[in-house]
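Q: Convert this sequence to structure tokens.
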Amino acid sequence: MRHRLFWIGGVALVGLLAAALPAQAGIGDDFTLTRAVPADTMLAVHTRNHEGLDFLNQQCERVWKAVADQHFERDLKRMLMGMADGAGESQAELEQRWQQIHDLAMGVHWSQLSDREMAFAMTVAVPFGADFVFMFMPPADQVTDDFDGLVAILNNLVALAPEGQLLLSTEGEGTSVVHKLSVAQSPVPMVLTLARHDEVLLLGFGTSMAEKSLALLRGEAAGPNATLVSTARFQKALQQVAPPRDAFSFIEAGKLVQQGRAFAEMAAQAAGQQMMMSDEETEGAEGQQAGAGESPLAFLPRIVDEFDIWDYVLESTRTEGMKTTTEEVAVLRDQASQRAAYKVFFASGPLAKPLRFVPKEAKNVSVMSGFDLKALYDETVKFMETQVPMGTEYVQQFKGMMAESPVDIEQDLLNWLGTSFVSFSGNMRSQFMSDWVMIVGVRDEAKASAALEKLVALVNPMLMEQNGAIEDAELPEAPGFKRVILPPFMAMMPGLGRPILGVAEGHLFVGNGPEIVTLALQTGAGKHDTFQSNERYKKEGLPLGDNVTGFEFSDLSKLGEEIGQALAMTGLMQMMLPPDVTKHPAMTMLLSVATKLGRVARTLDFYQSKCSVTSQDGLMVRTRTVTNYQEPPKPAAEPKESKEPAEQSTGGAQATK
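A:
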């Protein structure tokens, strides 16, 4: 199995708001499937293999071997058999169906379908929704076998369906074949396309995307603007990032939002028609019909408008041996600042000193600016009052509830809460104990302190009933900070430690111990070195640069072990569940799979660290990310066999028997 399969989905879904430093544009000739991605594509992902991925390919083969060794299919089979027993189904029939499914699945080399290349292209249109296509290039000697295996699965689907419900048509032969599977008498056209053109396997869903890609593969639709990468818009976007080597993705965010608005308009229109039909059945008191008003869902398109702030997003990825670098750019629309989403996510601007409170000993750091809860609340209230029918009444009801509640979300939280967020963790006290701190900017220290005092007065009596309390922390560096004495049942929870919280230096601090909070305050006061002095960061990270709105550094050297330990806790969960629940076939499978996944996760021991820096310059948001890898630890050496005769050795084969 190749490395690309691990981030095919991630390339499309992760980093949509990120960006990168400018460089020369260019899509190499090695990305051969670009010739089959149509120009009207709204979301495209393209990955390819190359020699720079050799290390990651080797590691991913280890992971897939671990997956195969766990035999997850046996857990699925046991669950199906158990459920069949409960439903009174024939075990023999189920066994026969299972064997058929197994044989069909074994006919395709799933882990190698994208061994050379993979491309995904999607467009969205009213009224049919998503229209997409996958294109794969397996190893040359497996193309025929994989296509035949996929065709066998398609034929089996037709055989299992009621007669006449699924229609299958076939065109071509040899290395150019197209199979189309459609649903008979469907109100909305539903077509599944499975095709082969030379060494490319194509799987599409919808009415047009597969046809366009096949035409491009055959050279029937060639032209300067026939493909996505040939358009001037894509080429202009590509100039903002370094040329891709592993993969690239392109999201026409503006066009996707426009289609979202079209769907919202369709829903609003349908609701209006439904209301009119209902009103026609019930005339008004004066004999007039009441159906002349606006649709009750007329506000839906206006909600979409408030999120129409992105123009496009482009991502480029390069891997060379032990390092992957990703550069991303998200371009905002010219009128983005007038939208509610911009005020929530981007209006705060860059951070003055991103790592001010983060000490050099930290291992994992996350810094963010831009998410404004107060703006979200204000914009929601404004929208409700101006756009939603009876919205003003709903807002007044909510504010009335807040006035009667001991905590008013607007007065006791939003009016002082800022938009910056910092968190870091590390093993400051002991390598066996993790310390953490969360630091949130505040707009008004006096209001924040008053809100904290109110919270203490509210929570402290409840804690005291459980043998807990809140008291003065008595920290020299932080007068007024509070210490939370947790109830016994909470004190044993890992990670909670001895919570400390308080307001200082324009920020709210929450940490799991006085030492870590004191260290953060000392670092902020310039009495301790910041994370920029961290040796690993200097060696493995990225420079901050200007206009920073986000920063992340993660120590991944124990990633597999940590995930494995977390999944191993499923045994404790089983002990807490009622016996009748744990005996259910689905729960039995879930617990078994979770335990096995823990074993698989331990093979993720080739990650070392990850660092990303995000900055914003006007309407352009950029992020650069670097992921470092390490050689996995060597397996423990097998104990040497004793050279003494077995009958004379207590540890020999005879003794063991």
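Residues 1-25, 285-292, 642-657 have pLDDT under 50 and may be disordered.
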